[in-house]
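Because discrete structure vocabularies remain unfamiliar, it helps to consider an illustrative case, giving the amino acid sequence and backbone structure tokens:
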Amino acid sequence: MTTMRDVAAAAGVSPMTVSNVLAGRTNVSEETRRRVLEVVERTGYRVNTAAQSLRRGRTGIVGLAVPEVHSHYFGLLAARLIARLAPEGLRVVVEQTGASREGELAAITASRVSAYDGLVLSAVGLDPDDVLAIAGDLPVVVLGERQDVRRFDHVEMANTDGAAAATRLLLERGCRRLVALGMPDLAALAPSDDDGPRPQGPGHLGDAFRLRALGVRTAVDAVPGARALAVSGVRSTLSGGAELAREALAREPGLDGLVCATDTLAIGALRALADAGRRVPDDVLVVGFDDVADAAYTVPSLSSVSPGHDWMVEETTRLLLRRMADPAAAPERSTSPFSVVERESTRRLLRTPDAT
């Protein structure tokens, strides 16, 4: 049976270097990495993970449980977290929960049964008591907008402030008939709704969308003559965005600004607006939320709220490693910084008079 020492001897490196290569650490040259991996492939060497776990008291695996892996945002999050944890010697197993209580329970249970070193959980359907009862001593970092997870390390976006800033951008550009696409009824929001109960909608990100709606309403209420209505009722998909945009045009014929709960909805809305002959940005300004990679490549390119992706991944990593090292540490709650990235969808071009 081939051992790590055999691989090291054949590749002309130390066993520690082989270990670093197999763990995905970056302190190895590309030439050395290539040579080690060639020997591994030629010899059929396999890491004895059971023995490693016994020696180290850890598996080197972290779970990431998200509502859906095909989402623009969650796909981006998974890729960045995988890349960030690799230098720490940690690999990521992604679980799709379907935004359901059952799916989230299964992800936590699988993490415990498989003895994962920790779990990053985008909790939507579970109550905190469920997480406490099932997770046990498993290190857990909660992502997202749940307002009732103060007993856990928690990383969230600046949803209300980010949406308010995006709305102010449209108002400053002259928009006065806005639609909050994919968000709950603005008139039904209480002033203290950021601490209120958690209504869950078909978009499955009930808390996030509610907080973003609060930001839209706050910004609109500060501008005399401006008004906004909300259109929602579908999942956050491209087709859902197109469907909601068509409904928005029907309900608000004078629509001149769309504040979308996600970039995915916004990209779908761009298609529906084009089909309806409404030009962006000449007739309607559009802004999204999440600043996914596709936003820079739509036509026109999409303005969006960037929720601080790199910061969120760094903070999640810090909290996870801290929790793994000290299970008794007091929980922390962090809110990411944000910025509004303005692109073509909110920039009206200056028109010059026709030559005569």
About this structure: The domain at 159-307+341-346 is CATH 3.40.50.2300 (Rossmann fold). The chain has a mean pLDDT of 85.
